[in-house]
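4.2 Preliminary Data

To establish feasibility before requesting continued support, the project team ran the inverse folding procedure on a target of 217 residues. The structure was first converted into the token representation described in Section 3, and no sequence information of any kind was made available to the design step. The complete token record follows.
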């Protein structure tokens, strides 16, 4: 049976959150943030998708594997994730792997993985996962495999073409000129496909969610 959405369902707002793992300060150009903003603009053009970009560097996120640690900012970030339909991990490549800030978020979500193992219920059920990557070195495929494995085993739903990446040399451009550059390159086509698939699947799951696993007796 084909699942179809009504026009009213199609216009209900979808929320996307970018967890931006750049290690740079706000005043320093971040290629990862610029690419996130390009994707967010594509989401906005779809009318029913609203985006927010959370710069992880601006928050107090302590190391650990629990949701709540020392009254830091992570529980507030988690609340924003759980209120979203699309959750995107956005990272530069550092020595072939995701940034330490993205890894810290993954580690802090470990408690929810324990809950999933105990109950069979995921807080991320019916939420769509995605990845944005930039860097001047190889490692994108390794990062994609690593994060998608984490997402899949923690209840996220993964669409086709679940990542968009740009690999190139760091330059002294402004953010606006860098975004214009992205729009001239093949990465822009990737970004449009990525945004389309993420939003389509989020709409579908919003109105046709996975059935809940029955409680064991």
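Position-by-position output of the design step:
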């Amino acid at each position: 049976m084909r699942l179809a959405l009504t026009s009213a369902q199609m216009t209900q707002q979808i929320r996307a959150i970018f967890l931006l793992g750049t290690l740079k300060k706000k005043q320093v150009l971040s290629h990862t943030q610029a690419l996130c903003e390009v994707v967010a603009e594509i989401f906005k053009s779809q009318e029913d998708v609203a985006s927010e970009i959370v710069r992880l560097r601006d928050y107090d996120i302590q190391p650990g594997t629990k949701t709540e640690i020392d009254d830091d900012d992570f529980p507030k970030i988690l609340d924003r994730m759980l209120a979203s339909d699309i959750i995107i991990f956005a990272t530069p490549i550092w020595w072939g792997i995701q940034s330490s800030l993205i890894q810290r978020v993954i580690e802090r979500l470990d408690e929810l993985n324990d809950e999933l193992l105990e109950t069979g219920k995921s807080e991320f059920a019916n939420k769509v996962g995605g990845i944005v990557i930039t860097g001047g070195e190889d490692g994108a495929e390794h990062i994609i495999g690593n994060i998608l494995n984490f997402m899949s085993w923690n209840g996220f739903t993964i669409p086709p073409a679940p990542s968009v990446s740009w690999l190139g040399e760091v330059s002294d451009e402004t953010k606006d000129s860098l975004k214009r550059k992205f729009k001239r390159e093949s990465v822009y086509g990737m970004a449009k496909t990525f945004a389309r698939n993420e939003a389509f699947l989020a709409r579908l799951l919003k109105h046709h969610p996975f059935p809940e696993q029955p409680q064991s007796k």
